[in-house]
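Revision sheet: structure tokens.
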Amino acid sequence: MNSSETKLSEALQAWRVEARPAANFRPDVWARIRRAERESWTAYVRGRLAGWAVGAAMAVAVAGLAGNAMARAKLEAERERMVVSYLTELDPRVLAKLDH
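Predicted:
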């Protein structure tokens, strides 16, 4: 180890954290809990309206994308069915080739 690593190692070994809790920590926590209990449902929603709006917009967007994908898949399947039906009407031998 070089000298800078030794100094760093010694400094980290000597380092001690002496955290002191805030004087009113426990009473402040209980006061916040009591305030939250008194909050009505409408006040809760009104205070978090932006989050609710974003969530609703995302749900609508996901539903729209899923619906679009399902509609495209159904349209493609219907198109394929119509093509096969058209070809078999023109030439019944096509039906024999499609069965295999």
